[in-house]
Amino acid sequence: MPRDHEAMLWEKLDGQNVRCNLCGHRCVLSAGQFGLCRVRANVEGELKTYSYGALVAMNADPIEKKPLFHVLPGSRSLSVAAAGCNFQCEFCQNWQISQSPRRSGVVTGQAVSPGQIVTAARNYDCRSISYTYTEPTIFFEMAYETARLAQAEGIRNCFVSNGFMTELAVETISPVLDAINVDLKAFRDETYRSVMKARLAPVLRSMKALAQAGVWLEVTTLVVPGMNDSPQELGEMASWIASELGPHVPWHVSRFHGDYNMTDRPPTPMATLETALRLGREAGLKYVYCGNVVGRSEESTRCPACGQLVIERVGFSVRSIDLRDGACGHCGEPIEGVWE
Ligand code: SF4
Predict the structure, then answer these.
(1) What is the per-residue pLDDT across 303-316, written as a single tens digit (0 to 9) for each?
(2) CATH code, domain carrying 235
């Protein structure tokens, strides 16, 4: 088990009790007790994290894989993770590393420092570092320290997150965070409670706070048959993104394949994904993408004004880019994103 490390964003309560203010669970912990993530614990009246500097994954991925389609297209992003998550999604695709502290009672990982992560990003010619695969909020201290060092070297920082952060966490990370993809997993609180063991409202709050803080935001929804796939729920979700975050926010609707504890249902039918794409466009969203299905035209970015192809993608590869100074190369319409 890695050594403990001083945690950020917590407060002392009565006696030796502490409250963690990192994620929406806001765990109140007595001495010796672990939080719901099973990564942070009260050690003699001080909150500690056990995942600092303990990596379980490091890969140079195309940034399209995050997915972040409007951030440095065609570039590589050093993708890192530590063990643990504050959610317990029944369909988690990375459950071996996200749920390992909860399932085994220990936090494992290979010792790597923030400075070494930044050096690796440079060596692998990555223009950004993505904190991903598990929940970056849960390895906040390592992500924050790495992001500070990376920013000083001109390397961008991206989170791929469930968005269950407190506003204090958003406020703290925003100055060093360039972009985030938030998984909006449903638009029903009861689904968040029963399937994710979390709640919807903190996710919506933090997405608004991230947008207000100027962090580039993209949203992904894995469309799960029988869980979040009704036209009404998908339509409400799309309308909320358009009205509360802005019509320029890309929405990725992704195809579900059974995993972890949810292998009882088929992959998302193409007709359902078509409906989600249509509802996104009808809600006024300018950029709606289809994920986990290779060979669809909805993998590419079209200019919302003239309809010309601006970024052509096939799978995680970028075939062509027709952007000039952040605008459509054909008609000059501004295309929102982090292009340089
Ligand atoms: S990060 Fe979330 S789950 Fe973990 S201790 Fe803090 S409040 Fe609890």
Answers:
(1) 999 999 999 999 89
(2) 3.20.20.70
